[in-house]
Design goal:
Layout: E1 9-13, H1 16-19, H2 40-46, H3 54-57, H4 61-75, E2 79-83, H5 86-89, H6 100-115, E3 119-125, H7 131-137, H8 144-160, E4 166-170, H9 180-184, H10 192-216, E5 221-227, E6 231-233, H11 238-260, H12 265-273, H13 284-289, E7 295-299, E8 304-306, E9 328-329, E10 335-336, H14 338-352, E11 356-360, H15 378-396, E12 401-407, E13 427-429, E14 441-443, H16 445-455
Parallel strand pairs: 1-2, 1-12, 2-3, 3-4, 4-5, 5-7, 6-8, 7-11, 11-12
Antiparallel strand pairs: 9-10, 13-14
Length: 463
């Protein structure tokens, strides 16, 4: 009873824009991620310096994936969550014909994973979209993007239908509320009216992808992906409890639509109270109603608190919240709350009664290479151990949990800040924030710890 299920999927999670590099290789177009800090474009716009930005090479997974997948296999992975770069398939987003070189590249990755019996869990859009769709259509503000995304989804479903049986639509789809450029291609200063209209289009695109996947790959499963931004009431004051309800509803709204197939009443009230009018066309509600996801996936890094007193909030990592005095913080100020994962798992399963999948969880920290060339990351081991113990407790509570893919199993570049020094991996990559380094891979202490956890189905975890 203390072991994880035999069919539990163990692995890690990466994203194309944070690992691949090769940002213009083999016909790839520019994505919104290429325009974020420290990409080659931002340098060209600001100066005449032609030195490639750190994200343009990232960790060179594009050329090194066989080596990296071999290391994942050595740890015992049975699943790797990764994303397809939309711009490798449709460089500008609105082409009628796909880029064959991009399609062939992912064929190579999926074939390499198959050699090692590692199942791919593929995200269709992970914090990036073609820049062409932003410049020519205004991003997800335009309904035309629904058709472009549908064409993209159809293309990859048909191409990889025999190689990929687990899919996700949009990564952390609720983050569009906090980072509209990253999420829906809108200016960061966009108002709620514009953001929720774009989100409506994205939710429709997600629903269409779910329906397409079930039609093209009947034996596949497709889920959504949420940022699990769990908020506790700061006190037992009913006003704080209500504040927590409102904060949680902001992200649960996305899960409710993608699972229950309709806009919840609390969201309709929010629209009324804030003079937001989401324009819908005939058939939109039917499209949503017919496309319930097969499972709920989510990221979990930290919890927060909510208070009716706005003075209690402090700036966090994109999302602001009230600090919890009972929890310690990571080096980047994230509250470490393993029991919050168990609470969230029980909460989501109770709400949706669908299988759950933890597709991101990990600790970003500054790792040091000692004189012997070793990376002793006991702090990461402790963090992951404590969260996995709570995931196991949730399974014993009756939660149906499909798997766990840590973020990220190999050091990668931060999406919004282009940091390499904020490391998550079991595998150290010799690259630093200034772009220097050999890109050599080194196994950290946590590499061997995670291998033992997988081999023992969690039996080696310390309660």
């Amino acid at each position: 009873m203390n072991l994880f299920p035999r069919d539990f999927l163990w692995g890690g999670a990466i994203a194309a824009n944070q690992t691949e590099g090769a940002f213009q290789q083999d016909g790839k177009g520019l994505s919104t991620a290429d325009l974020l800090p420290h990409g080659i474009l931002s340098q060209h716009q600001e100066s005449t310096d032609k030195t490639p930005g750190i994200k343009d090479l990232a960790i060179d997974f594009y050329n090194r994936y066989p080596e990296d997948i071999q290391l994942f296999n050595e740890m015992g992975f049975t699943c790797l969550r990764l994303s397809i770069a939309w711009t490798r398939i449709f460089p500008h987003g609105d082409e009628s014909q796909p880029n064959e070189a991009g399609l062939a590249y992912y064929d190579g990755i999926f074939d390499e994973l198959a050699k090692h019996d590692i199942k791919p869990l593929v995200t269709l859009s992970h914090y990036e979209m073609p820049v062409g769709l932003v410049e020519n259509y205004g991003g997800w503000a335009d309904r035309k993007l629904i058709d472009f995304f549908e064409h993209y989804a159809t293309t990859v479903f048909e191409r990889y239908q025999h190689k990929v049986k687990l899919w996700l639509t949009f990564n952390e789809i609720n983050m569009s509320l906090h980072a509209p450029y990253t999420g829906v291609g809108l200016p960061e200063a966009a108002d709620e009216q514009a953001i929720y209209q774009a989100i409506h289009h994205q939710l429709l695109a997600s629903a269409k992808a779910v329906t397409l996947c079930k039609h093209i790959i009947p034996d596949a499963k497709i889920g959504n992906m949420l940022l699990g931004a769990l908020n506790y009431p700061f006190t037992c004051n009913p006003d704080d409890v209500m504040a927590a309800v409102h904060e949680n509803n902001k992200w649960l709204f996305f899960g409710d639509v993608q699972t229950r197939g309709k806009y919840p009443g609390y969201m309709l009230r929010y629209f009324r109270d804030n003079n937001i009018e989401v324009i819908m066309q005939e058939g939109d509600l039917e499209t949503l109603a017919q496309a319930s996801v097969d499972f709920i996936s989510f990221s979990y890094y930290a919890s927060g608190c909510a208070s009716a007193d706005p003075k209690q909030k402090e700036v966090g990592n994109i999302i602001d919240s009230v600090p919890n005095p009972y929890l310690e913080k990571s080096q980047w100020g994230w509250l470490i709350d393993p029991k919050g994962l168990r609470i969230l798992l029980n909460f989501l399963y109770d709400r949706y009664q669908k299988p759950l999948f933890i597709v991101e969880n990990g600790l970003g920290a500054r790792d040091e290479v000692n004189a012997d060339g070793e990376i002793i990351d006991d702090y990461r081991i402790q963090y992951l151990n404590d969260h996995l113990v709570q995931a196991r407790e949730a399974i014993l509570d009756g939660v149906e949990l499909m798997g766990f893919t840590s973020w990220g199993p190999i050091d990668l570049v931060a999406n919004s800040t282009a940091e390499m020094d904020k490391r998550y991996g079991f595998i150290y990559v010799d690259r630093r924030d200034d772009g220097s380094g050999t890109l050599a891979r080194t196994r950290k202490e946590s590499f061997f710890w995670y291998r033992d956890v997988i081999q023992t189905r969690g039996g080696s975890l310390s309660a």
